[in-house]
Design a protein that fits this description.
- This protein is α/β, with parallel strands linked by helices and 416 residues long.
- The chain is 43% helix and 17% strand.
- It has two domains: 15-149, Rossmann fold; 155-412, no CATH class.
- The chain is built from 17 helices and twelve strands.
- The strands form two sheets. Strands 7-6-8-9-10-11-12 form a seven-stranded mixed β-sheet, sandwiched between helices.
- It is globular, with a radius of gyration of 22 Å.
- The relative contact order is 0.11.
Length: 416
C-alpha cells in the first residue's frame, strides 16, 4: 500500500533509532560533547531532536539558518544569553549545533562554549563530515567530546532499538519483505519508509548532486565538480574490487594523485568507505590498494556487489558501535594473498583476528578453499560464509567456534 505524504512523514519522525538510547547512556555517564557524525540525510538531526523531546529544555541552532548563523558568529556568550543559562533549571538544557563544521572557526566556538558553560549544558554537535575533516585546524577539542557514528537503518534496528549488553544480540527473525525492502531501497530513512521506485530514483539523484555541489563546494576548493560527480558514479561499478587508480585516471583524464584526493573527499563526506587488506600473520601477503564500498548500498548496480556492500555496511556499523561504546579496539579489513586467494571481510578485536566473513548472494554447497586457507592461518574465533538466498534459521551464530554457512538474515539480526 502506498503511504500518503502525511503518513510517511509521520513514520520518519516517529521512527525510534538505537542512537537515542546511546545518547541517554552517554549523558547519564559523561560530561563530554556528543558528536553525531554520518552521511547527509541519515537521520542525525532527527535523532538529536527526538532525544531532546524527552530531555527537558532543548535548543537547536543550525549553521544553515541565517538567524542562527548570525548568533553563532557573535560568540558563545551570545548563545548563552539566547538560551538563558542564568535561569535556574531542574536539569541542564540540551543544546544542539547542526552542521556547524561549515563555520571555519567552529572548533574555537565549540571549545569556548564548552569550557565556559560545561556544567550548565549538555551539547550535541552533528556533522556530515568525518573526523578527519573535523580534526583539521589549530584548536584542539581533546578530552571534550565523544564521537558516535550514525549509520543507515540495519536489520537489527528494524527489529528493535534496545542495545545489546555485549557485542551480539540473540537471533531474531525479520520478515522477508522488510529484509528485501532494506536491501533494495537502502537504509536511509526516507526512501526506506517511502518504498516507491519513483521517489527513490528522484531522491538518489538529488542526494548525489547535493553532496557534490553543496557539501564538496563548501568544504573544499575542487573546481571540476562535474568530473567528481562522474567519479562517484564510476565507483558504483568498483564495489568489492581492488581499486585501480590508473584506470579511473584514464577514464576521467586526471592524474592518479587527483583521483586519490577526490576519493578521499568522497570518503570524508560519507559517500563511500574504504577497507584495507590485513597483512599480519598472512603468509605471502601482498600489499594492495583498498576496496571501496558505498554508504548507500542500494546504489550498487550489480546484484552480487549490492549484497556484498550490504554486508560490509552492517559489519562496519557494528565495528563503529563497539568502538564508540568503548568495548575495545575493532577494525575492518579484507584478506588477499599473492595467489589471489581472498575473503571479503575480517574483523579484528584489539589487533587480533576475531570474525571472518565471506558474502555470497547465492548458496554454495561448501566453504571455499580460500576460506579454509585463511581460517587455518588466522584461527579467528568466528568464521561465516553469509548467504543471501538462504532462509532464516533460529541459531546463535556466535555460539559456534567453527566455520559455518549461515543465512544473512540470521547473522545480521545479531549485529547492531
Amino acid at each position: 500500500m502506498v503511504l500518503t505524504i502525511l503518513q510517511w512523514y509521520s513514520n520518519i519522525v516517529s521512527m525510534k533509532r538505537s542512537y537515542q538510547e546511546i545518547l541517554s547512556q552517554h549523558f547519564a555517564d559523561n560530561r563530554q560533547i556528543v558528536f553525531l557524525i554520518g552521511p547527509r540525510q541519515v537521520g542525525k538531526t532527527t535523532i538529536a531532536l527526538q532525544y531532546g523531546q524527552g530531555a527537558g529544555d532543548t535548543y537547536y541552532f543550525s549553521w544553515d539558518v541565517t538567524e542562527d548563523r548570525l548568533l553563532i558568529l557573535e560568540g558563545p556568550h551570545a548563545v548563552a544569553r539566547e538560551i538563558g543559562l542564568d535561569k535556574a533549571r531542574v536539569q541542564p538544557p540540551l543544546v544542539i549545533f547542526d552542521e556547524i563544521h561549515k563555520f571555519p572557526q567552529w572548533k574555537l566556538f565549540i571549545k569556548g562554549f564548552f569550557d565556559v558553560y560545561e556544567r550548565l549544558v549538555r551539547i550535541i554537535v552533528t556533522s556530515s563530515a568525518r573526523l578527519d575533516v573535523i580534526h583539521r585546524g589549530g584548536e584542539s577539542l581533546m578530552g571534550r567530546y565523544f564521537p558516535y557514528h550514525v549509520h543507515p537503518l540495519s536489520v537489527r534496528e528494524l527489529l528493535g532499538q534496545t542495545l545489546p549488553k555485549k557485542e551480539f544480540f540473540s537471533p531474531k527473525k525479520l520478515s522477508k519483505q522488510k529484509f528485501q525492502d532494506l536491501l533494495r531501497f537502502g537504509g536511509f530513512p526516507e526512501p526506506y519508509v517511502r518504498k516507491t521506485d519513483q521517489f527513490y530514483h528522484r531522491w538518489k539523484r538529488l542526494r548525489l548532486r547535493q553532496l557534490i555541489y553543496d557539501e564538496v563546494s563548501d568544504l573544499t576548493q575542487i573546481q571540476y565538480l562535474d568530473r567528481l560527480e562522474l567519479l562517484a558514479k564510476l565507483l558504483r561499478f568498483q564495489i568489492g574490487q581492488l581499486t585501480s587508480y590508473q584506470s579511473l585516471s584514464k577514464k576521467l583524464q586526471c592524474a592518479n594523485n587527483t583521483i586519490r584526493n577526490w576519493i578521499s573527499v568522497l570518503t570524508n563526506l560519507y559517500y563511500c568507505f574504504e577497507i584495507r587488506p590485513w597483512t599480519k600473520n598472512v603468509s605471502r601477503s601482498l600489499l594492495k590498494e583498498p576496496k571501496f564500498y558505498l554508504w548507500d548500498w542500494s546504489w550498487c548496480e550489480d546484484e552480487g556487489a549490492r549484497f556484498e556492500n550490504f554486508i560490509a555496511s552492517h559489519v562496519l556499523k557494528a565495528v563503529h558501535y563497539w568502538t564508540d561504546m568503548g568495548l575495545g579496539d575493532y577494525e575492518l579489513y579484507f584478506l588477499r594473498d599473492k595467489e589471489k586467494r581472498e575473503v571479503d571481510f575480517l574483523i579484528t578485536k584489539n589487533q587480533k583476528p576475531w570474525v571472518m566473513i565471506e558474502a555470497k548472494n547465492r548458496a554454495q554447497k561448501a566453504l571455499s578453499s580460500s576460506f579454509h586457507h585463511f581460517y587455518d592461518q588466522l584461527a579467528p574465533v568466528h568464521a561465516f560464509q553469509v548467504v543471501n538466498e538462504m532462509p532464516y534459521v533460529e541459531i546463535d551464530c556466535f555460539a559456534a567456534h567453527r566455520p559455518l554457512i549461515v543465512p544473512a538474515s540470521t547473522l545480521l539480526s545479531q549485529l547492531i
